[in-house]
Amino acid sequence: MEAMVVNVLNGLSWGMLLFLISVGLTTIFGVLGVLNFAHGSLFMLGAYGTMSLMRFFPSFWAGVVIAPLLTALLGMGVEITLLRRVYLRDVSYQLLLTFAVLLVLDDAVRILWGAAYHVVDPPASLAGTVGLFSHSYPIYRLFLIVVGPVLGLGLWGFFTRTRWGKMIRAAAQDRQMAEGVGIRVPLLFTLVFGLGAWLAALGGALAAPHQSVGPAMGERIIIESFIVVVVGGLGSFPGAFVGAILLGLLDAFGTLFAGRVQMALPYVVLAFVLLVRPRGLLGREG
Amino acid sequence: MERRFLLGMPVALGLALLLSLFPLIVPIYWVMLATEILIMGLFAMSFNLLFGYAGLLSFGHGGFLGVGAYVTALFLIHGSWSLWFILLASILSASLAAFLVGFLCVRRDEIFFAMLSLALGMMLFAVAHNWREVTGGSDGLPVFAVPPLSLGLWKLSLFAPSSMYYFTLFWFATSALFLWTVVRSPFGLMLQAVRENKLRLSFSGTDVRLVRLAAFVIAGGLAGLAGFLLCLFNRMAAPDMLHWSFSARPVLMTILGGAGTFWGPAVGSAIFFILEHWVTAFTENWMIVLGSLLILVVLFFPDGIWGTLSKATGERKEQV
């Protein structure tokens, strides 16, 4: 029973990080129609950026605020200089272009920070553990479990209540119509990519104290977040939430009930959903 | 077409002559590099049958190369089988794996096809990585002894780099000839029609899934042949060969060379390895160079380097 609760909590905290990166990925896909292979690299930049900023500022939170903003700027630069040119091209080329960006960013991280793994301590206010039955559980993970739904709700409010959120949804629904009613779609696309990059980097910043920061962290999470958005339904917001929790729990419980097959479980789920319900669990028809 | 064929003949003969004299004129290091280029070129050309001709972006093609490599390693380790038998077994088992994976994959298009092929490829990777008793887990399966290749009364040891090179060149040429016949056949035309307009083709009475599946099996079998050669060349089968990042290699090579062209992927393979060789002499950050080059190619030369060159020299695209 105790092990069960600990596993659920572990699954949820990883799931919330997955949710942050996946929600950005799915927003970009919903609006721009591009499945961004470099999204995991932006996540990684958030983590490395936070780690480095902590040397200049005494606070972890400064890194959490500044690193994602810098990453968002970089993302907007990538959208303006590269992605903009391929919207009308075949999806394969969009996927390949973002894959090329991934190669560049990942190697740039290796040049700037080296190939070593780093440990980032959680901020003092969230360090330590709480008693949970007879176990002790890290406070930082509980914080992640809370912060995920809070950010999710905030985003939901942004997309349904604010003017910008509504414009983004309008552009996602019908680009030409949105242009027709006077929305500056190219600018909007850049901002949406920036928002997605910001979310990915925020996930990375918050992930820094949760796992070790190293050059492979982008590669792992990009495939898992692809699985999340496809399983949840491409472009679907609640789908990303459900998919992320599902994958997080699968990650935490996999070794318990599947043993050595655990590594293949996310792919089994991905293949199953693609074959049985290709629009995803919560994706819309068509 | 006829004129182009006549013009192309001297060039092709010259290239064939150069390739066959290669081990006599360059140092052994370059012979080995050329062998690797040919193996990966064959792998990329088999991938291009799916991507360039049928419009299917597979991110799991490494799985079939891996099956070929593991079958080769397993036969070589457990008993002294004839290399010809092992070659056949690798192609057949990779084709069978491609049939099973393809049977599921061909139902989906575009990104969904890419994701599904990635998922199924990673399942093969998980088998290679975790079934330690048979596959050696993450260490892979090293091969210590390769029986000589028997050509009638003549026996050839593949341990000599130049004989491995000729053996690879022979299979590269044979596969290229086979692929050439395939893409020029009515079946090849149907494949391109699948890419251009799937719906229209199915209205005209063609079973689109069957056409795609056939292409998948052919491409998988040739990838298995590349796996057989790669296992002999590296003297091992490793789980990395089945990982999605390995499957990304033929994708990159094809884009570099030119997806719509027949020779593009092989040219891409040559560019890939020669560039890697040069860049790593200066810096270990070869990926950033490859990534930047790829960005430029995708943005400005969508026909790839070979495709752009053959267009620029006034020739029509090689496509039928």
Automatic annotation (TrEMBL), chain A:
TM spans (from-to): 12-39, 59-83, 95-119, 139-159, 185-206, 226-250, 257-276
MF-aspect GO terms: transmembrane transporter activity
Keyword NAD applies: no
CDD domains, A to Z: TM_PBP1_LivH_like (cd06582)
Keywords: Amino-acid transport, Cell membrane, Membrane, Transmembrane, Transmembrane helix, Transport
Presence of keyword Chaperone: no
Pfam families per record: BPD_transp_2 (PF02653)
Principal subcellular localization: membrane
Protein origin, superkingdom: Bacteria
A single cellular component GO annotation: plasma membrane
Localisation: Cell membrane
Topology within the bilayer: Multi-pass membrane protein
Family: Belongs to the binding-protein-dependent transport system permease family. LivHM subfamily.
UniProt protein name: Amino acid/amide ABC transporter membrane protein 1 (HAAT family)
From TrEMBL, chain B:
GO molecular function ontology, one term from the record: branched-chain amino acid transmembrane transporter activity
InterPro entries in the record: ABC_transp_permease, LivM-like
Key words of the record: Cell membrane, Membrane, Transmembrane, Transmembrane helix
Transmembrane segments: 5-22, 28-51, 58-77, 83-104, 111-128, 165-183, 210-233, 254-275, 287-309
PANTHER family: ABC TRANSPORTER ATP-BINDING PROTEIN, HIGH-AFFINITY BRANCHED-CHAIN AMINO ACID TRANSPORT SYSTEM PERMEASE
Entry's Gene Ontology cellular component terms: plasma membrane
Membrane topology note: Multi-pass membrane protein
Naturally occurring in which organism (per UniProt): Desulfosoma caldarium
Keyword Transmembrane: yes
Primary site of residence: membrane
Entry's localization field: Cell membrane
This protein's record includes keyword Metal-binding: no
Name the record gives this protein: Amino acid/amide ABC transporter membrane protein 2 (HAAT family)
